[in-house]
Design brief:
heterotetramer; A: about 210 residues; mainly alpha; Serine Threonine Protein Phosphatase 5, Tetratricopeptide repeat; 9 helices; globular; B: about 325 residues; alpha/beta; Rossmann fold; Hypothetical Protein Tm841, Chain: A,domain 3; 2 domains; six-stranded mixed beta sheet; 14 strands; about 25% strand; binds adenosine-5'-diphosphate; binds magnesium ion
Chain lengths: ~210, ~325, ~325, ~210
């Protein structure tokens, strides 16, 4: 059974909760290698999304939900993460427009589209210590799980696990994009906040799918 | 955290109300979406100029809205770039039919949000050009970074581009002037103390009682190196070569020397820094023909300063000297 | 102590050199005896205006030397009034034959040293009048104190008296205008953090992390009471009644509202304070017809602000609006 | 044997030393109830006096020395203390002009003139927590010692002892002149720095006379 509009709504609700819970943690990650606002920015954005969720039609598809998230994040988050996450959700919506349910292939499609959207806007490559270092392993793991014939929740779980590992793996890196890039060697030893929030969001997607 | 604020969430909006009340002769403030616009905008036939970015750098950008400088400024949350919506709204508000120039500091957030706004504006039939300011020589190698940051030099780009727009230059010409200023301006800063973003409630970094941060950014981002506190002259001696040798500025050049306070450093110290910087330029045969000293691009209550040098030619000088009437920069009217 | 200085002993002289270099279009600086004088001084036939006092309050007073304001400023050591010698020399330097007005903040040191200088000048054949500024309502009862202190209102006295001198008023008339501004202006301040005098090397007082000082003076002198940190609006609600009820200012009055930063408070916070002060005046039916926001009378890096209200009439408004061209205040030319 | 020009010079030299030694102490007194510069101001002034001492004629009278001190303090100290001490030394010089040696009556005369000069400039009354609260007891004690037929060193010692007691006695007072007056009740418990420096200077005068 694929992921429904219901799942998408629940994911948003859970994301908002997870981000709120991790607001301080994300701020704390952003402080040493950024400007200490990543948690604040995302929290502001997801609270807005939450407030708008009720406005969706009852039969909203996952793409409709993604689009709402995209537009709301773009217009409320600001900073680097706002346009990047906004583009990600917008491209994700584009990849599954109209589909009432998302099967494994659709999941891989929207994850891929999301990642590609971030690359298009932010021009980051892998290993540059950005959220891409969580997204790309997630996309690859999801594609692998799909090839292995896993279920939708399993595919999302694989993506989340890979994103978590990817976020962790940003720690030893020097940054080449975003504010952390100004730090040179001094970014080493710090986890990228955007990669961490990506892992949190994908873990939330998997958790909600597994319920 | 000791600040003259109410709820940290309301800092930007309440300050905007204050600006509206304090400068109603010069600007109008739209509260939602939030932007500060020249009272007589849109000026028909004139290129509109919009800038913006995170709050906490006042008077940048709202203090530079007015005759001869910006048509609108879009303040984001503290140290966070504004979203595309208010940028788009401000762009509409200043479009007098001759197109709109976005002046954007080179931070990923600012660039992406202005880019999105510009795309939306173009989609709605406006003509928008963007100039990215990246004057900060503290960032070492642009191949391996998000590129140089846009810092205090932004004021000079805004002043001079604003004068070009005011004299009737078309969009391409105004953008070209802005690019030219950006090409000729270099900045580097030093931070003595951190600052506290109101909603964060604690400093974004810490410095020991005898440590300073060379090459600090305007959000308190760490800079090039952390060293022991030194006398002002020694600090200037450290900063200036990076600034001067980059373009490079050479003997015989005429320049504008701008010492900018980060917000928490008293003016008396900025003059001590200015003195040494002027001495060093003189030693190199570089003529300081225009000057600016004060807190123009601040980082909340951070102590520290930046030094900016802009190479002038006759046209840039004339445009810099042209009348300007804004809250923070005013002469000639 | 973290400051952008070299030897604490040289702070004032090095800053003066910086001022000389940065504002050579407007002022000339005499290094020994130390005073900052309008480039075209003495202006023949015009009343000369001299002010001065301890350094550390920049841009006061040197930043206000120029067309339409002061003819000379005499900076003393940090927070210490200058001695009579440089005051006397400055008085000579600005005497254009129409006499000289001394504008003196009401601190015992300033009053005594200016008094001595005025006596010496008179003995040497000059005509000198003095106006003592005492706008600080924080000091409770002048019968039992050295009297109210002269604080941020000084800027307005200097601006308006300067305009009167520039339009050709004679010495008595300029002194009368200065007295009138002083009679109509009231100020009260709040300090959030102390400041460090360079040669002292440590704060002149301490405040707990959640304490503020209501009614603080511009040298970090303790004020009327020490209270727990409050939101900005609550602080303004505390200060404004003292200011407004003193003269008192009443419904129908037109006023200038001036929010002055103590040096270490970011501009964004000053606008939050301004907003509330303007609201309260509006509630009382008092019309804010002129405004000023910024760090004009600072106390080194102290965080805090003061609120000044000046009642205007047509003449004071016209004189306030008159052109001024100084380093720190400029319009109309 | 009266006080000579030699004594006056030695007093100046010793004063400069005493003030330098007490620079920090006077700053510390001035910090809580003033602006923390009294020690700095006086030290700057007396070092200047010291530098000018050699310029005096070898046969300079006490009044000549006092005048030099007066002019130098006026032109180098600033603040409240500069004009006040300057006036004090100027009036002291005026009280003993021309006299090559000062007997007990002359000592009382210059102490009185000095105190009166300070009152003339600063308009302080006794009990207002200023240097007057050291000067007036000193003048009174000196006059008493003179009436008791004491020697010159004894008269100065009486003055210094009374000035010290006077300085101490400023501690419980509320100030009504100078910066400390802004403090109201909060000045209570702090010694007035000007009264303290007065005590130091008079003690130095007595010490040098007793050598
Ligand atoms: N060019 C880029 N491409 C991909 N991700 C980026 C890029 N620049 C920044 N990021 C991500 O954005 C995160 C920072 O977001 P945030 O703190 O909200 O914005 P800002 O840096 O403007 O304060 C970084 O941790 C990084 O993951
Ligand atoms: N009106 C006055 N009459 C007599 N003494 C005064 C008066 N005002 C101040 N003083 C003395 O001056 C001292 C302060 O001197 P100082 O710190 O050098 O000057 P300032 O107060 O200008 O910083 C006080 O401790 C007090 O003894
Ligand atoms: Mg950030
Ligand atoms: Mg940010
Ligand atoms: Mg003093
Ligand atoms: Mg003092």
């Amino acid at each position: 059974m694929g992921l429904t509009g219901e799942w998408a709504r629940d994911w948003v609700t859970d994301s908002a909760e997870v981000i709120a819970q991790n607001r301080v943690a994300l701020i704390t990650l952003d402080r040493p290698i950024g400007d200490g606002d990543h948690g604040e920015n995302l929290d502001r954005g997801f609270q807005q999304v939450l407030a708008k969720l009720d406005g969706l039609a009852p039969d909203a598809t996952p793409a409709d939900v993604f689009k709402l998230v995209a537009m709301t994040l773009i217009s409320t988050v600001g900073g680097a993460a706002g346009p990047l996450y906004g583009t990600a959700y917008l491209k994700a919506a584009g990849a599954v427009t109209g589909a009432p349910e998302l099967d494994g292939a659709a999941i891989v499609a929207w994850l891929t589209a999301a990642r590609d959207g971030i690359v298009l806007r932010g021009k980051a490559e892998s290993g540059e210590k950005t959220m891409i270092d969580a997204w790309t392993p997630a996309v690859d793991a999801a594609a692998g799980a799909l090839a292995d014939g896993r279920t939708e929740p399993e595919i999302l779980d694989a993506a989340a696990t890979a994103a978590e590992a990817g976020a962790l793996a940003t720690e030893p890196l020097v940054a080449r994009k975003g504010r952390a890039s100004y730090l040179g060697e001094r970014a080493i030893g710090h986890r990228d906040p955007g990669a961490q929030s990506t892992a949190l969001l994908l873990r939330s997607a998997a958790d909600v799918a597994a319920r | 955290m000791k600040k003259l604020i109410n709820d940290p969430k309301n800092v930007v909006l309440e300050a905007a109300s204050g600006i509206a009340l304090a400068h109603s002769d010069i600007v109008t403030v739209s509260m939602d979406p939030l932007f500060i616009v020249r009272k007589d905008a849109p000026v028909r036939g004139k290129v509109g100029i919009v800038s913006g970015g995170g709050s906490g750098h006042e008077p940048l950008h709202g203090g530079f809205v007015g005759f001869g400088m910006l048509d609108a400024a879009v303040p984001g949350p503290v140290f966070t770039s504004p979203t595309p919506d208010p940028i788009l709204a401000a762009t509409h508000a200043v479009d007098g039919g001759a197109g709109v120039l976005h002046i954007v500091k080179n931070y990923t957030g600012d660039v992406l949000n202005f880019e999105t706004a510009a795309e939306l504006a173009e989609a709605e039939g406006l003509t928008v050009r963007s100039v990215i300011v990246n004057d900060d020589v503290a960032v070492k190698d642009s191949l391996y970074t998000a590129g140089r940051r846009g810092v205090a030099g932004t004021v000079l780009v805004e002043k001079i581009a604003g004068a070009a727009a005011e004299r009737g230059d078309d969009l391409d010409a105004v953008a070209a002037i802005a690019e030219r200023v950006n090409a000729e301006v270099r900045t580097m800063g030093v931070g003595l103390t951190p600052c506290i973003v109101p909603h964060a409630g604690e400093p974004s970094f810490t410095l020991d009682e005898d440590e300073i941060e060379i090459g600090i950014g305007i959000h308190g981002e760490p800079g090039r190196e952390r060293i022991r506190l030194e006398p002002a002259d020694a600090i200037v001696d450290r900063l200036l070569p990076h600034i001067v040798d980059d373009v490079p500025f050479v003997s015989g050049d005429r320049v504008l020397l701008f010492v900018n306070g980060m917000g928490g450093t008293p003016l008396v110290e900025l003059y001590i820094v200015f003195r040494r910087a002027a001495e060093l330029l003189a030693e190199r045969g570089i003529e300081v023909s225009r000057t600016l000293v004060g807190n123009f691009v601040s980082s909340l209550e951070m102590q520290g300063c930046s030094i900016t040098v802009l190479r002038l030619d006759d046209e840039l000088t004339e445009l810099y000297d042209a009348p300007v009437q804004t809250a923070a920069l005013r002469w000639g009217r």
